[in-house]
């Protein structure tokens, strides 16, 4: 009996091993004598992962290029640890992914290799200007961009606006028009329905930076990174958004929206801002700020109501949408500086093949993304424009591309700085009481003064002064 | 005879060393070495590896969110601890007076939450508290009331971190107190009854003094555990709103992968270790010095 059991177990193990090997071979055909390149990728949406696997498989199926890519995909929480452990252990991946916001830090630590001599100049010339600025430092390209995602757009339900009698085009709204529309929509909503969804918690810090920049014309610290720019926002009247400091005006907008009960007190989706579009799609809010990735969520999960949804840039203080209204998030493919020169060249060849050589190949990523992300090269943008001529949601894509083309990059300074102003907005979100409208400026000043103090400490303790990698001279 | 005994001890001493060697080895690899490395790194620059003195400690102590998190955790863990001990003690008294079968069933039922991880417990509570349509929101809607954002409004964020934490610890600690109550000699109560002492008097002059060591043990253990509070605030409030429910461990975990110097995060973790070690040190000192006469 024992012998039979052992034999059965052994056979099972042998079968499992054979099946495992067979699967592996199916996925990655082996090229004899080829150089193997390790590629650490980050796990994103399922469709995105499947697309990347498919492309790597396609690349590896060429058995004559001398390159085999070994891709390992890590979930968000593990990716940072995995890549750090690999670097510390001396086996950094030849190719890796890094966000625009983290690229500068990587450059400072010497992780990515310059790509200028590894890829044709035409590939770099093809990158659109505002994205070029996000991957190029002092004329050196340290990564090749894949896509950008505007962090904040205004999504709205056409039927709910229509039912409330709002006839103006949200794309033209300034803040006063936004608040007026909210006042008009609120009485038309059923109980436990709200007018507008806004980011809360941590996403407040990264999703509002574009709007902050649009409103103030500068970021919370100056270009030299040696002082806080919010000081002049303290003790200024914000009535009619008339402060000279845009940060005070933006705080006042938040106060007006929350104190009038236009915004739900909690998240309308369990996962917060990243999935806030769910609240719009199930009718709990009539409008919402949301990132461009929400387009894919709408078309994948709520296709039946897609025609009822409109997309516009977020309203600005003047109503003009000529400047940045969002930040561009997104990912860059980089080659490790620690890899041998030969491997660096081969890794760059793969990145070029994937992202720059053929607009159709690169555009296939945007196709599976339902064009919820913006292309970053002129050739791919032109290709997509041809392909999507009869797309029923072309107006959405036009808005995304327009906002992305004007958006600023994610801040390069410590995330703490962004958190300090976000704390002001978050304080407003839980303390905006119409009974305190008479002393709103004093209350906002207290919070802004606190933010100034904390940012000043952050600048000192992080030794930020003079370290802006984008500061000319 | 004595000589034989010594010889015996000497002969098997090496066996004893051999037996503790694996444990010692594991401790060296997984505890002592990382601890020493962490202490060393907490004095070095995170990027260059140069010696920076107390910079990392100053860095972490200058962060207002870290300081706030210390206050938060002291408040929340103190309230949770007191709640667990008081309700546990009262319930243990009820258990003592139940018949054996009912008492057995109740003990199993109250112990069950202790078997769940903080994450699972938090998910259970999140399903009830979800602003977009949890159980409580549905009840409020039924009574014509607006939804409440339990994760952000008023004192609710504190309440809904304390309640799951209490729920998880209640069963186990009640059983510890129940065992303590059983250890009090019945003769004390019988003598008191003969002297005409009522229920309250017996509680104040017999039960509570005899349970002192149990109370001290639970109080300090729960406080030490509470200082490491992490999973419940992570799941229920993510430390918000405005960092009102951020705890030191949550702060350290959130920032470990961020852009703060990693060695400063290590310094913060070491400081928390010292605080927790101090609390544990006091528990052992107090418990040892105040041994019950009957124990």
Shape of chain A: globular
CATH topology of chain B: the name is MetI-like fold
Question: How would the global form of chain B be characterised?
Answer: flat
* Total count of strands of chain B: 0
Radius of gyration of chain A: 25 Å
Q: Which strands sit side by side, in order, in the main sheet of chain A?
A: 2-1-3-13-6
Assign the CATH superfamily of the largest domain in chain A. Periplasmic binding protein-like II
Mean pLDDT of chain B: 89
CATH class value of the largest domain in chain A? Alpha Beta
Cα-atom radius of gyration of chain B: 25 Å
> Order of SSEs of chain B, N→C?
HHHHHHHHHHHHH
CATH architecture of chain B: Orthogonal Bundle
Helical fraction of chain B: over 70%
CATH homologous superfamily of chain B, by name? MetI-like
User: Which protein chains are joined by the largest interface, and how many residues does each one contribute?
Assistant: A-B, 33 and 30 residues
Assess the beta-strand content of chain A as a share of residues.
5-15%
Which CATH class of chain B applies here?
Answer: Mainly Alpha
Helix and strand content put the structural class of chain A at alpha/beta
Tally the helices of chain A. 19
What is the CA-CA span between the terminal residues of chain B? Answer: 33 Å
Describe this structure in words.
The complex is a heterodimer of chains A (473) and B (295). Chain A has 473 residues and is an alpha/beta fold. Chain A has 19 helices and 14 strands. In chain A, strand 4 (136-137) and strand 5 form a beta hairpin. Chain A is globular and about 75 Å long. Chain B has one domain (63-289): MetI-like (MetI-like fold), CATH 1.10.3720.10. Chain B is built from 13 helices and no strands. Chain B has helices spanning 2-41, 55-61, 64-96, 100-115, 118-129, 135-142, 156-183, 186-194, 199-210, 212-226, 231-236, 248-256, 262-289. The chains are: A alpha/beta (473), B mainly alpha (295). The A-B interface holds A 77, 80-81, 102, 105, 108-109, 191-192, 200-202, 264-270, 279, 284, 414-416, 419, 423, 426-427, 429-430, 454, 457, 461 and B 47, 58-59, 62-65, 126, 130-132, 141, 144, 146-153, 238, 240-243, 257-260.
